[in-house]
Amino acid sequence: MEVSVEKQEGIGRKLTITVPAKEFDQHVATELKKFKGTAKIPGFRKGKVPAKILEQQFGGQAARNAVDALINVNYPKALEKEKLVPASLLNINPTQVEKEKPFIFEVDIEVYPEVTKPSLEGVELTQATVEVTKADIDKTLLSIQERQVTYAAADKKAAKGDQVLVDFSGTIDGELFEGGQMQDAEIVLGAGQFLPEFEKGVTGAKKGDTPTAIVSFPDDYQGQAVAGKTAEFAITVKEVRKGTLPELSDDFALAMGVEGGLKGMREEVEKGLQRELDQKMRTKVRTDVMDALAQGEDFPLPQAMVREEIDRSMEQVTKQLEQQGMGANVEQFVKRENFEEESKKRVKLGLMVREIIESEKIELDEDLLKERVTQMAGSYADPDAYAQHVLNDETQRNQMAGVVLEEQVVSKLLETAKIKKVKQSYEEFMHAEQQS
Fold it and tell me: Best exposed site among 105, 112, 130, 316 by fewest CB in 10 Å?
């Protein structure tokens, strides 16, 4: 086997691989023999077909089989001989396939680009210092109470927090529209179930009132038929119900499935808030570090890797839209050009992280992996069983291992960055993360 390598634009390489004629002919002959015992040719018994006729009938297929076999054997050997590690395989093209002549094929690949060892030396990053306080726990307990509120009919005007039972019928330009009518709708005012303009039309009404609400649907409203349009709703208030919060007590904690009474419930809430805070803080640090890293030196990106990343992103968004019942809008939202820049960024970061892992000889920290799995399992009914399931399942373990290895890379990069600490409340921090 002979190999020549030609540099192409950027990180492209063209390998021309030549296999001696004798080796090619031997492979064709071997493939041809496989047909001898099974070939059915009129006038000949099975296994007794003359070689010349066998070649006439099956020579083409035998040559194609030999080509596949020789490519599978010689392509890896050529990479090893030339000390090439392909980032992507673009194309394989046989250029000479003739009897008694060398078999020649070309392979177009992209190699990994040369990446200067990434560093955040001198880069300033802001990190929040956040604590879970008694007020945060109290607020969370209140939200749990509010989810268990009970409603009873009351002779009063509807106000925020009340539940109203209504019938309504909506029109656009005097015409009824699909989804604009409902009977016995239960709406908790202020809960965000309906658009604010609709709730405003009901607020202040009593049982028997028939208010009207003028509602302007946002341009990005998920109901595409009414998006950007203005509707008029005729509403009939059938009942106003006042809500009553359950009392915070040991019995309430027990009803929520928490052992240890109200004290135990407060402890569980605190653990949950701290677990969520830790996870969000790690995510923010990772995002900030990766964003800073992405600002570093540019280098050629393997285009096949970029295309694959775009394909993955498009597939993921398509599935999400279909799960949300918006499959008909896939072509409107899932356009290839919309994913290109972010996909390039992810490929670039992946190559930079790869360089850091190799240059710093970073190996997976098994103890940290178990710690992260344990933390994640804390929100499940049986944390120990779930943790063991993740660690024993190859796919899930590998996913978590990738996350932890990336976390180790982030820690290594932070060693050279300038860290500016900023104190934030739990609510401020979580709100900012939700917005981002």
Answer: 316
Q: Quote the strand ranges of 121-229, DSSP E.
A: 124-129, 150-153, 163-172, 175-188, 212-216
The residues near 358 (Cβ < 8 Å, ≥ 6 apart) are: none
Enter the pTM of the model: 0.72
Comparing CA positions, the residue from 263, 188, 177, 266 lying closest to residue 223 is 177
CA distance 122 to 411: 15
124-134+260-295+343-435 shares the fold of 2-111: no
Residue ranges of alpha helices (H) inside 242-364 are 250-255, 261-294, 303-323, 330-333, 340-359
Residue that has been written with the tokens 């008029």 in this structure: 232
- Top-tier CATH class for 2-111: alpha beta
Name residue 185's beta-bridge partners.
Answer: 166
CB 241 within 8 A of CB 149: no
Q: How far apart are CA 224 and CA 194, in angstroms?
A: 16
d(CA 256, CA 423) in angstroms, rounded, equals 34
Structural class in CATH, domain 149-244:
alpha beta
Burial 236-253 (b: 16+ CB within 10 A, else e): bbebbbbeeebebeeebb
| Domain boundaries defined on the chain | 2-111, 124-134+260-295+343-435, 149-244
Condensed to tens digits (0 to 9), the pLDDT of residues 122-177 reads 899 999 999 999 999 999 999 999 999 999 999 999 999 999 999 999 999 999 99
CA 157: distance to chain centroid?
A: 46
